[in-house]
Amino acid sequence: MGFFKYKYIKHCIFLIVLIVFINLCQNTVYAKGETEKNILIISSDENYGNFMDGNKSMSWDNSILSSIDSVFINSKQNINVNLQYLDFNNVSQDTYFQEIYNLYKTKYKNTKFDAVITIDDLNDSAFKFMLKYSNELFPNTPIIFSGVSSFDKSLLNNHPLFTGITKNSDVKSTIDVALKLHPKTKQVFVITDKSAYGVSNKNIIKSFMPLYKDKVKFLFSEESDINKLKKEIDSLPEDTVIYLNASFKDSNNKIIPATTAADILFKDSNIPMYSRESLSTNKQSLGGMMTYADSYGNSIGKLALKILQGEKPSNIPVTEDASHNYEFNYTQLKKFHLDINSLPKGSKIVNEPIGYFDIYKSMAIRIFILIVIFVVVLETLFIIFNISKRRLAEKLLSDHESLLKTLINSTPDLIYFKNEKNEFLEINDATLKLLNITRKDYKNINMNKLNDISIFTKELLDKLKRNDKKAWKLGTMYRMEELMLDQVDNVNKIYDTLRIPLFNEDKSPKGLILLGRDITQHKQNERNEKFIRELKYYDELKTNFFSNISHELKTPLNLIFSALQIIELKNRRTLEDKDLEKYTAVMRQNCYRLLRIIDNLIDITKINSGNFFTHLENNDIVFIIENIVTSIVDYVESKGINITFDTEIEEKVMAFDLDAMERIILNLLSNAIKFTPTGGSIEVNIHDNKDSIVISVKDTGIGIPKDKQASIFKKFVQVDKSLSRSREGSGIGLSLVKELVVLHSGTIELESAPNQGSEFKITLPVKLVKEDKNSRNDTIIKHNSKIKRIKIEFSDIYDY
């Protein structure tokens, strides 16, 4: 009993000394002239760094702390940060919690904090401590937690001041990816240590072990003797993967560097090993799910700033960190013959060889350097030769310059040179032709004296200048594709351009070279290949269409012939008028349907060929749509369907094609009637958005599945292929509606779900057209014409 008492006294003394030391080394973020904010950061880790073969690196908690500190500094706010490191590794948590509570209660009795931040990793000790004592130690103080890996929302039921960012379950993710990459695995060998951190790691794995029942078994080792552990690893069967999360000590009780320990255990091992630790410290690891402490800390810091600016924690939902990703060691992937393509999407590969693009870039730089060296050597030779034969050299130099210009001007590629002021030094004929200026005038470009150039030339010069500046800013070769208008040939051409900025020794701009090649034909070939594929698709679609339309045209005609045949047979007897009316109605409806199909086909063909024209007139669209709806009320109600019309405005005069608008509304109403059962309802509404109006046609019908909605407006595509008599169609109506809406510069949208009805929303811009009063047509819809249009548009709604 005395031993344990002495142990706890020793820990308390250590904690007091540690707190005093930390307070002497407080890191304060200070900004003058602002109210000071006090932040307390509690870390469950102890205040020491990890070591990589003698080089100190920051621990997980310290890396997060550093990033939080940077966020506070960059915010330029007056923030005072108090740090508390808690070492929970070697003590009983419950007893230690009580000791920490007593210490904090005394120390912070008269201190008011604006927020408290907790930092954890695996054991969640700091978070659990605040859950238990925050109300007593820091009443009415927001708590921002981080690093919590075992989080349950119910933990915060009585803690409205808590919010934070949980930590991704990188342990399970690492084991999952190991099992995926090694599907023949039968056991997972887990290496941990006996520290509280190791125990937490072990408990986390045990918590999800039932998920792998009957798939793999887990073996645990807490062996601290590295030589004994090496023997255990060497005796493992080949169907094993290893998960490592432990530290090791030598015979002198000194920590063995992570890199050294990994080399001893796994360098000659044939068992794949995975770990959450950085691949820079464990070069024998295949990899795993890594959480980046710096990015995570940055997110925590920004969340804390929101709290300091007055946002309530209860209004900030708890989120999971996005600062993690899979990392894999290229060397180990090759050792175990793993395909990089089998890795999770977005994985980061460490130690991967230089890629093709980098090699190409390096090769281009070398070629450029060789060219520069060649030019320098050539100029040197000219200077030496000039000593003995100056005049001859001047002539030769002139000849070479002329030859160089001839070569440059003979190429169809674009070439020009600029100085450090972004002024043209030389420009070849191909570039002059593209700019549509003469060689005599091009130097005036630099002096802004070229006034008689076309607007296209001016725009092209500005475009080239902007892209040249991008190359200067980038500081290296800049390659891109540019679309340029060839004014001589009056065609747009695509150029593959390469800009090479040159710099002096002091890194100041020296010059710029542009090389541009016409790749229009190459791009056209690519488009042709795509066009051929599309043609094949549309050819198949056309075949299906004509198969459908053949059926659609023959069915009404066959019905007409059948009805006529019955009339002829009846006429030989005494035919009642009611029967005659029935059969003639059938003939008339199918004639209207055939007329509708033909009209739609003709209009679609005109639209596709660009020969369909709208006649825009200024009319009251509210009156027109209300008139259309009113005219079909009796018909709709005879089907047992309720129809209503509502509008936010009584009048809205705008330009639209009266006939096209009538067809749009009737077509949508026809669809609504066909797919709405008896007892359902249809609503037509008009909403005013000042510069636009929204026309809504909503029904309570059978709805349209999500996977079918993308094709609802495509030509010749039928969503309902059941061919039930009451729902027949040609697949043209809605595509024609969309085309007519587009001709009005509008859009049409669909909101629908199975058994929840459908709503079509048409948005049209409100605009007026100038009209000739003398030639203005009467826009009032005549009664007979309106009835005929309704019969045509509703002709595919059958009652038999």
UniProtKB/TrEMBL annotation:
Domain Histidine kinase, chain residue ranges per copy: 548-768
Group of enzyme by EC: transferase
Family annotation (CDD domains): HATPase_EvgS-ArcB-TorS-like, HisKA
UniProt xrefs under InterPro entries: ABC_transpt-TYRBP-like, HATPase_C_sf, HATPase_dom, His_kinase_dom, HisK_dim/P_dom, HisK_dim/P_sf, PAS-like_dom_sf, PAS_4
Keywords: ATP-binding, Kinase, Membrane, Nucleotide-binding, Phosphoprotein, Transferase, Transmembrane, Transmembrane helix, Two-component regulatory system
Enzyme Commission number(s): 2.7.13.3
Highest taxon above the source species: Bacteria
UniProt KW ATP-binding keyword: yes
Coiled coil: none
Reactions listed under catalytic activity: ATP + protein L-histidine = ADP + protein N-phospho-L-histidine
TM region(s), chain numbering: 363-385
PANTHER family: SENSOR HISTIDINE KINASE RCSC, TWO-COMPONENT HISTIDINE KINASE
UniProt name for this protein: histidine kinase
Organism of provenance: Clostridium pasteurianum BC1
